[in-house]
UniProtKB/TrEMBL annotation, chain A:
Protein name (record): DUF917 domain-containing protein
SUPFAM superfamilies: CV3147-like
Organism placement in taxonomy: Bacteria, Pseudomonadati, Pseudomonadota, Alphaproteobacteria, Rhodobacterales
Pfam families reported for this sequence: S-Me-THD_C, S-Me-THD_N
Domain S-Me-THD N-terminal: 9-164
Coiled-coil residue windows: none
Superkingdom, taxonomy of origin: Bacteria
Domain S-Me-THD-like C-terminal: 168-356
Automatic annotation (TrEMBL), chain B:
Domain named Hydantoinase A/oxoprolinase: residues: 192-362
Protein's name in the database: Hydantoinase
Species in which this protein is naturally found: Alloyangia mangrovi
Cited InterPro entries: ATPase_NBD, Hydant_A_N, Hydantoinase_A, Oxoprolinase-like
GO MF entry, a single one: hydrolase activity
Highest taxon of the lineage: Bacteria
Gene3D superfamilies: 3.30.420.40
Signal peptide (residue range): none
Domain Hydantoinase/oxoprolinase N-terminal: 3-172
Coiled coil: none
Amino acid sequence: MLQEFPEENIEALATGAWILGTGGGGNPYLSTLNLRRLYAEGARIQILQPDELEDDDMVAVVSGMGAPLVGQERLKDPRHMARAVELMEDYLGRPFRAIMALEIGGANALSPFLAAALLGRPVVNADCMGRAYPEAQMTSFAIGGLSMFPLSLVDVRDNEVIVTRAESWKWMEKVSRAVCTAVGSTAATCKAPRTGREVKDWGIHDTITQATELGRVVLEARARHDDPVAAVLDHAKGKQIFRGKIVDVDRTTTGGFLRGKTVIEGIDADRGATLELAFQNEWAVAFRNGEPVAMTPDLLCLLDSVSGSAIGTESVRYGQRVSVVALPAPEILTTPAGVAAVGPRAFGYDIDFKSVFK
Amino acid sequence: MKRIGIDVGGTNTDAVLIDGDKITASIKVPTTQDVMSGVKSALAHVAAHIGDTPRPLDAVMIGTTHFTNAVVERARLERVAAIRIALPTGASLPPMCDWPEDLYRAVDPMIFMVHGGHEYDGSPLVQMREDEIREAAMKIRDAGVTSVAISATFSPLTTECEDRAAEIVRSIIPEARITLSNSLGRIGLLERENVALLNASLQSLGRTTVQAFKTALAEIGLDAPFFLTQNDGTVALADVAAANPVFSFASGPTNSMRGAAFLTGLDDAMVVDVGGTTSDIGCLIGGFPREANNIVHIGGVRTLFRMPDLLPIALGGGTVVDPETGAIGPRSVGYRILHEARVFGGQTLTTSDIAVAAGMIEMGDPSLVRDLDPTFVHDTLARMRAMVAENFDQMKTSAEDVPLIAVGGGAFLIPDEVPGASEVLRVENAGVANALGAAMAQVSGEVDQVFSDMSREQALAAAETEARAAAVAAGADAGSLKVLEVEDIPIAYLPGGARRVRVRVIGDISFG
């Protein structure tokens, strides 16, 4: 049964998605503005549960691709996200039953909503990361060994590209990234279409609801002047890794990643200790006094200790009072195949994955 | 060097006359309803001390809250037109799409979106459609609107589109006052455009305000060049500043920090400016306030431009203390403190009452707070100290202890010892710190751009050259320029080792 996504949930979804972005995925502010305007014009989004899909239904998987900085100048327009979906339908010769997010973390959590508002389709309550990751092979569909093609990519200037085949998920990432760069490092994409069966078997379910609920507890705690970080921990069954103050941020760009580390000096119970958070677009590994204590695929979230708002790897700055919180990863990411795709070694850290929840 | 500095605040108007680095005269008068009569009486007082020396007055520096107040009050703003050069991008988020409704109505904008703009690497997004700009300009002219804000994608990298559009608009509306977004803001189209539009809405007020100051100076018989102080602790010639009122938004707190630097002789320190309702904590680097590199909301509008990095705390001389729980603020009696605070015979317990009870300051009638439980007073003070300490620590840029300078009318609330502070300094003449800060102002130049296909060193050098040129263009003496800030951030995903570099240089005003 379809369920309407009420307007008052937009802010909660954006707040929760930004936390699940684990430092990356882009700030959802502009997407939120877009969705609010669509609602003001009368659009209403219907949410479809994954198990209500027919096995042979077709589902579009959408995301905005590119550099967040470019997105601050070339403002996202829902029409292009919708166009990427239509382009794929034209190519397939079949309509999509529904639209889903590639990643629930960051701005892309709202991407299916923008397309769905214009195309009158429902949004599936699922994604394929359960968080944010930078590359195409880092999805539950890739871990499941599903097909990685075709992919449609739409540029605002009437440039439309379909990548019809790719040898592997990594090649799909490489080829589509090259096209994205050529059109100015921002594009709307519709990833390899999925059947209803595939979404049921390999999608990460219920993540729209999870993000919305997570955002809601933060907003409510803030309104009550309660501790929003405690609310996050309680609601999402997370673990506090560290509490402190940012004393150093070191960023470099290599291989198309924003890499670096931020150093946090402990306060309260962590006084005297230092936590180093290494990142590659997203927070990847936390080292306490040099020892790895938490790592991907567990979700590492850096939250403002007072407001509970997420802090991104591009916006973290000296002096911020922060709480480092780990949230449990979707089960599939912690399987051996999952850890191979998104564990510490996938990001170049020679460490065995050890969950803080085991 | 003889200068007069004036700071027009919400409550008081301060003025000082300085000769070199000596204060020759100073005065503080209440800000009057009409503002200018207060300015005139303050000016007349210090001008009387210029004396008979052969050296004339070099400059008058004025800091004012006129423009911020207009935005906050949604008053005295004018109708504007927005031309954004960005299609086919951004159509769903037109200019001013995230403004508060009341401010949007007060500005009643005409909005146009046209084709053009650039990419992050400086290549054109699409061919700019000059015919669309011409058509917009004709509609603007026909509506009788003369203040126009122009924005374009990546205009901080290349100003070509905005410059050409301005030419076209001017050819159709010769009397147009045009604000280009690249001259004010940074990367982030919506935020930069917001700054440009706020600026456009203040054009008439900028002109009438500068004219009123000019008249006031003439009536006192002062004919020295006159400058308005800016957010970053520098000044601009009044006629130039009138075109960019947004650069005066935070001149009050900035002048107070600069004045604190002058009064203590410290160039690197933290400053806490304690007012009636709130305090601002800022950081002085090389004698200038550290800049905010994040979104700053002005009157409910998101902006990103040259503003000091200030951390407001809900702690001022009029902040209300709950007599049951001892909770501090955020409510304040503000300027009504003279009637409502206990020591002045009122019914409301304030932080000032606690300070009087603790013997930290003498004011009002101390017998009116004698009934307060000493333990309660002690605990409340401890909480105040913790508030200051935590916020102070948050603004520090290093783990080492640094000096903290306390200024403003409520400076007595700041304890003598603050964790993380090497010392807490209080200054004489703190009451006119703002006017002093204004009098001491210099000229700056800034560049904030994405550089690609060059080494980090080359990028930093290129940025510095451009910043120096900008400072000289703004009236700085080239020989006195020094680099104040360098910051660079590599940009994720972009090829060519792209990095965004921000460099700011500063120097003395070039006279003649």
